[in-house]
Design brief:
With 106 residues, the protein is an alpha+beta fold. Helix content is 72%, strand content 13%. It has a 3-stranded antiparallel sheet with strand order 1-3-2. A hairpin with a 2-residue loop joins strand 2 and strand 3. Helix 1 packs antiparallel against helix 4 and helix 2 crosses helix 4. The longest helix is centred in the C-terminal third of the chain and has 33 residues. It is elongated and about 70 Å long.
Length: 106
C-alpha cells in the first residue's frame, strides 16, 4: 500500500475530517462556511483541510479572499481503487466457495 493511500485512510479516520469530506462531496465549500456548519473553530477546520489536502483527497482554489475546497477526483479515485481490491478479492473468494460447494453437492 502506498503512503498516498495510507494517508487517505488515516485522514478519514478522524470524525471531523470525515464530516468535512462528506460535506465537500455535495459541493465545493469555503472554509468559513464549513466552520459555521461544524462544532469546531475556523482555524481547526483549516488544519483538518490541510490534512485532507496532504492526503490528496481535496483541492482548493482562491475565490477572492476565500479559499474554496472540493474533493479531488483523482485522490478519491485512487482510494476507491485501493478499497475495491478488497471487494474484488471477497467476491472472487465467495465465487470459489460457492463453486466448490456446488461441486461437492453433485
Amino acid at each position: 500500500m502506498s503512503t498516498y493511500q495510507t494517508d487517505g485512510l488515516a485522514a478519514l479516520a478522524d470524525p471531523t475530517r470525515r464530516a468535512i469530506f462528506e460535506r465537500l462531496a455535495d459541493r465545493p465549500v469555503a472554509v468559513g462556511e464549513l466552520a459555521r456548519e461544524l462544532p469546531v473553530s475556523r482555524p481547526a477546520v483549516s488544519q483538518h483541510l490541510k490534512v485532507l489536502k496532504a492526503a490528496r483527497l481535496v483541492v482548493d482554489h482562491a475565490a477572492g479572499t476565500r479559499r474554496v475546497y472540493r474533493l479531488d477526483p483523482d485522490g478519491v479515485g485512487a482510494l476507491r481503487a485501493y478499497l475495491d481490491q478488497f471487494w474484488n478479492r471477497s467476491l472472487a473468494a465467495f465465487k470459489a466457495a460457492a463453486e466448490q460447494e456446488d461441486e461437492e453437492m453433485t
